[in-house]
Specification:
The complex is a heterodimer. By secondary structure, chain A is mainly alpha-helical. Chain A has helices at 19-39, 44-53, 59-75. Chain A has one domain (19-75). In chain A, helix 2 (44-53) runs antiparallel to helix 3 (59-75). The longest helix of chain A is centred in the middle third of the chain and has 21 residues, at 19-39. The termini of chain A are far apart. Chain B has 21 helices and 24 strands. In chain B, strands 2-3-4-1-7-8-9 form a seven-stranded mixed beta sheet, sandwiched between helices. The longest helix of chain B is centred in the first third of the chain and has 32 residues, at 167-198. Chain B is globular and about 100 Å long. The chains are: A mainly alpha, B alpha+beta. At the A-B interface, helix 1 and helix 3 of A face helix 7 of B.
Chain lengths: 76, 697
C-alpha cells in the first residue's frame, strides 16, 4: 500500500499513511488539546484552519490538516 | 639514466605537498639550492652538514585502498589491497610519474626522512610511500615532526628526527582507510547496483560509515520541521514611565500558556502603579576564548564571513603552506610555551594592522587561556609571525586576520561586566528588566570585530520607587520549529557526536551535496536522502547508528596508542558487512524501485518552475532536448496535448525563483552567466516586455 499523501510505503498493509505522515497525524491530533487549553474554546475545524495558516506549521502537518478537514466534511 | 648527477648516497626527504617540499628545502639549504624539474614535478637537492639531501613530494595520497578486481558492479569485496592511485582512478594519471620518480630516487638513498604532516593522514601518506615506492623503508625511516613551516621550526624538526615515530598513527590511518572502504564501497555498490538494475542509467548512490549518521541528522531534522505543529503562548510586557522615558519590563513567566490567564493579568495590572521591589547588581567575568582548533575556526569563519567549512579548511591550508599559520588540522585548544609567544608577537609587530595589539599583548603577562581539548600531534592554530611573501587573496586576508586577532584575544585579560536586575511589582504580579554593561573590556578589545556584545543600559532605579504604568502589552506567539542545519552547525554536530575526523568532516558534508542528498545553504534533505535513509533503516540499521561509528573511532584511537590490533577492527567490519549485504542482495529490486522513484521526484522538483499557465493542470519544467541538446521550458502534460513552451538562455545556470510574472503568470527564473544575474520572465510574448520595447522606441 502507498501513502495517500506522498506515495511512500505505508507502515502496515492496511494503513493509509506512511511512517512520516502517520507520525505527523498523531502530532496534529495531540496539538488540538494544547490549542484548546490555550484558547479555552476551540472547535476541531477552526483549529485545523488556523493551524494550516500558520507559517511555522510543517508542510506535512499542513497536508495532514487538509486531509483531516476533508474527512470531517465527508463524515458530516 | 640516474635522475640526479651526483650518484653518492643521500638522504631522501618525503613531503606531503609540493609547496611544503619547497619550504622545507629552502629552510634546510645552507648554500645553494639545486632545483630539477620533471614536467610539473620539482626535486630539490641541497647540502647540509656535509650531507646531501634530496627533497621530493607527494600530492596528498599516492596510494589508495581498492579491490584487485576493480569492477564497480562487483560486491561484496573484502579482499582489499593498497594500489597506486593512478591505477584505480583514471583522472589521476599524473600520479604515475611522481610514483616513478620517488621509486627511482629511493634507489640511491641510504637514509629516509618522512616529513609529511604529523597526523593520521600525513603519516599514512608517508608510510605508504616508504613501504611501496621506497621498498619497505617504513620501519627504518626517520620522522621530522613540525607544526609550522617556518625556517626555525623546520630546522629544529630535522635536528631532532626520531626513528619509528608515528607508527601507531600510520596503523590507525591505514585501518581507517580499509574499514571505510569496506563499509563505503560495499554499501554504495549495493545501492548503486540496485538502482542501476531497476532504473534507466547509472547514478552514484553512496553511503558510508560517517556519511550514514551525518545524513540521518539532516533527515531527522527535516522530519522534525516538516511535521512541526506550533503551540500558541502569550508574552506580557509592562511599559513604565521614568521621568518621561518609557522603560519596558517583561512578565516573570516567559510564556503564559492560556489566553484567559493573559487577560486576567492584564486586567488586574491596568490602572496600578509599578513599585520597584528589588534591585540587584552583580559582576561577572567573561573569560577569553580558547585558541582555535579547526572546528572552532570553521564555525567562526562561517558565522563571520559565511565561509563553508570546506572552504575554510582550504584557505587555512594555503596560509599554512605560506608559513603564515601553524598546521590547521588540529583538534587542540592549547598553545604550549614552546611555540615561543614573544617571537610570534614580535613578528606580528612588524605588521601595521597588528602592531598596536601585538605590543599590548607583549607588554602583558602573556598567559594564554588554554582550552580543554588536546591533540598530541599539533598545538592549536596560531600565526607564525612571519610576514606574507606573496599577495594574499581577500578571503585569505580575512581568515588570517581572524586567526591573528583570536591569538591576541586568548592572551587578553578577563572582561568584567555588570548585570543589573530590577523587579517591579504591578498589582501583585512581578515584572523584570535587566541591564548589562561592560566595565573592563579585557580581551574584547582585541576581538571586538568578531564578537557580539549585548550591552543594554537601563535607567537608575531604587527599591520602593514608584513607576507609573503606561500600558500592558500582550503578544500572541507560537512555538518555532528547530532551525535547519547549515554546513557549520552540521559540522559542529558531527564533532559533538565524535564521528569522522577533523580532516574528513568537511569533505563528508560536501559529498552529501554532491550526491544530491542535500540542497541549499540552510540544509534541506531531498527525496533521495529520505529514500536512502529509509533503505538503510530497513536493511542495515547499524550503518546509520552513531554507536557503531563511535565504537570504530574508539578502536582506531586504541590502535593509535598500540592498545589494539588492527586486524580485529577490520574483521569486525567484515562480519558486520556480510550480514547487511546478504539482506540487501535479496531485496535489490525493492531498493532499486524505492530509490529510483525518489530520484525522479527530486529531479522533477529541481526542474519544476511553476504550474502551467496554459493548461492549468501540468507543471512547467526545464527540459533538455535529446535531439539538439538545447534546454527549454515545456509543460509536463505535453503527451496530453499541452504545447506550452518557452526558450531559455543556453549558457550559464538557470534556477527557479519560485515567483511568477504578475503580467502573464509565466515563471520568472534566475539566469546567471559570467557572474551576472538577471531575472527574466520566460514568456517571450509577455505584455511587460512589449511595454519595455515601446518605451525604448
Amino acid at each position: 500500500m502507498k501513502c495517500s499523501l506522498c506515495n511512500r510505503e505505508t507502515i502496515e498493509k492496511n494503513s493509509e499513511f506512511c511512517r512520516y505522515h502517520d507520525e505527523c497525524l498523531k502530532k496534529v491530533e495531540a496539538g488540538f488539546e494544547k490549542w484548546r487549553n490555550a484558547y479555552g474554546e476551540l472547535d476541531w475545524q477552526t483549529y485545523l484552519q488556523r493551524l494550516d495558516k500558520r507559517p511555522e506549521t510543517g508542510v506535512w502537518a499542513k497536508e495532514c490538516c487538509n486531509i483531516l478537514k476533508k474527512k470531517r466534511y465527508i463524515n458530516s | 639514466m640516474p635522475l640526479l648527477q651526483n650518484s653518492s648516497p643521500y638522504t631522501l626527504v618525503i613531503c606531503e605537498k609540493p609547496d611544503a617540499a619547497e619550504r622545507i628545502a629552502e629552510a634546510l639549504s645552507e648554500k645553494e639550492l639545486n632545483i630539477k624539474k620533471y614536467g610539473n614535478i620539482k626535486i630539490f637537492t641541497l647540502n647540509r652538514s656535509d650531507r646531501t639531501y634530496v627533497v621530493c613530494s607527494a600530492v596528498g595520497h599516492l596510494y589508495t585502498v581498492s579491490d584487485p578486481l576493480q569492477k564497480r558492479y562487483v560486491y561484496p569485496v573484502f579482499d582489499v589491497e593498497w594500489f597506486p592511485i593512478h591505477t584505480v582512478d583514471r583522472k589521476r594519471k599524473y600520479i604515475s610519474q611522481r610514483v616513478a620518480i620517488i621509486k627511482k630516487l629511493s634507489e640511491n638513498a641510504n637514509v629516509f626522512i618522512n616529513a609529511c604532516d604529523y597526523d593520521q593522514e600525513g603519516e599514512t601518506i608517508g608510510f605508504n610511500i616508504l613501504k611501496y615506492a621506497c621498498g619497505e623503508k617504513q620501519t627504518t625511516a626517520f620522522r621530522a615532526k613540525f607544526s609550522t613551516l617556518t625556517k626555525t621550526d623546520i630546522q629544529e624538526a630535522f635536528r631532532t628526527t626520531v626513528q619509528g615515530l608515528g607508527t601507531g598513527l600510520a596503523k590507525a590511518g591505514r585501518t581507517r582507510h580499509i574499514v571505510d572502504f569496506i563499509f563505503g564501497v560495499n554499501l554504495s555498490r549495493a545501492l548503486s547496483e540496485s538502482y542501476h538494475e531497476f532504473n534507466q542509467g547509472y547514478r552514484m548512490i553512496t553511503i558510508g560509515r560517517v556519511q550514514g549518521p551525518s545524513l540521518s541528522y539532516v533527515v531527522n531534522r527535516e522530519v522534525e520541521i516538516r511535521t512541526f505543529v506550533p503551540t500558541p503562548f502569550w508574552i506580557l510586557k509592562a511599559e513604565l514611565n521614568k521621568n518621561g522615558v518609557t522603560i519596558i519590563a517583561d512578565y516573570e513567566k516567559k510564556r503564559v500558556l492560556q489566553i484567559s490567564e493573559t487577560q486576567k493579568i492584564k486586567k488586574r495590572c491596568e490602572g496600578k502603579k509599578g513599585v520597584v521591589t528589588r534591585v540587584t547588581k552583580s559582576m561577572y567575568h567573561q573569560f577569553p576564548p580558547f585558541p582555535f582548533n579547526i572546528g572552532d575556526l570553521q564555525k567562526d569563519a562561517y558565522q563571520t564571513f559565511g565561509f563553508v567549512p570546506n572552504q575554510t579548511l582550504r584557505i587555512a591550508e594555503r596560509l599554512y603552506l605560506s608559513a603564515l599559520i601553524s598546521y590547521p588540522r588540529t583538534s587542540s585548544q592549547k598553545l604550549p610555551p614552546s611555540i615561543d609567544y614573544p617571537r610570534i608577537l614580535k613578528g606580528l609587530q612588524r605588521s601595521k594592522a597588528f602592531n598596536k595589539d601585538a605590543t599590548e599583548v607583549l607588554n602583558g603577562k602573556m598567559i594564554p587561556n588554554q582550552g580543554p581539548k588536546n591533540d598530541l600531534a599539533h598545538p592549536a592554530i596560531y600565526p607564525t609571525g612571519d610576514v606574507p611573501k606573496r599577495v594574499l587573496s581577500s578571503t585569505e586576508i580575512r581568515l588570517y586576520d581572524l586567526i591573528v586577532r583570536r591569538f591576541f584575544a586568548v592572551f587578553g585579560e578577563v572582561t568584567k561586566r555588570e548585570q543589573i536586575s530590577v523587579t517591579v511589582d504591578i498589582g501583585g504580579y512581578l515584572f523584570k528588566m535587566q541591564g548589562k554593561q561592560t566595565l573592563n573590556e579585557g580581551w574584547l578589545k582585541f576581538y571586538r570585530k568578531y564578537t557580539r556584545v549585548d550591552d543594554k543600559v537601563i535607567p537608575y532605579l531604587v527599591e520602593d520607587e514608584e513607576l507609573p504604568l503606561q500600558t500592558i502589552v500582550t503578544e500572541e506567539r507560537f512555538t518555532q520549529p528547530s532551525r535547519r542545519y547549515n554546513q557549520s552547525s552540521l559540522l559542529e554536530k558531527m564533532e559533538q557526536e565524535n564521528i569522522g575526523t577533523k580532516a574528513t568532516r568537511a569533505d563528508i558534508i560536501k559529498t552529501l551535496y554532491d550526491r544530491g542528498y542535500c540542497s541549499g545553504s540552510s540544509i534541506f534533505a531531498t527525496d533521495i536522502a529520505f529514500a536512502v535513509l529509509d533503505v538503510m533503516r530497513q536493511y542495515s540499521p547499524e550503518i546509520i547508528s552513531i554507536e557503531m561509528t563511535r565504537k570504530i573511532e574508539e578502536n582506531l584511537e586504541k590502535i593509535e596508542c598500540s592498545q589494539m590490533d588492527e586486524e580485529i577492527v577490520i574483521h569486525q567490519a567484515v562480519d558486520q558487512m556480510m550480514d547487511s549485504l546478504t539482506v540487501i542482495k535479496k531485496a535489490e529490486q525493492e531498493i532499486g524501485g524505492k530509490i529510483g522513484q525518489a530520484v525522479i521526484r527530486t529531479i522533477h522538483k529541481q526542474h519544476r518552475l511553476s504550474s502551467c499557465p496554459i493548461c492549468k493542470k501540468g507543471s512547467l519544467i526545464i527540459i533538455r532536448s535529446k535531439k539538439t541538446h538545447k534546454r527549454f521550458i515545456g509543460c509536463s502534460r505535453y503527451n496530453e496535448g499541452c504545447r506550452a513552451s518557452a526558450p531559455l538562455p543556453q549558457r550559464g545556470t538557470v534556477t527557479s525563483t519560485g515567483k511568477t510574472c504578475s503580467s502573464c503568470g509565466w515563471p520568472i527564473v534566475n539566469a546567471r552567466f559570467n557572474r551576472k544575474l538577471w531575472r527574466p520572465c520566460v514568456n517571450i510574448t509577455c505584455i511587460s516586455k512589449r511595454k519595455v520595447e515601446k518605451d525604448e522606441m
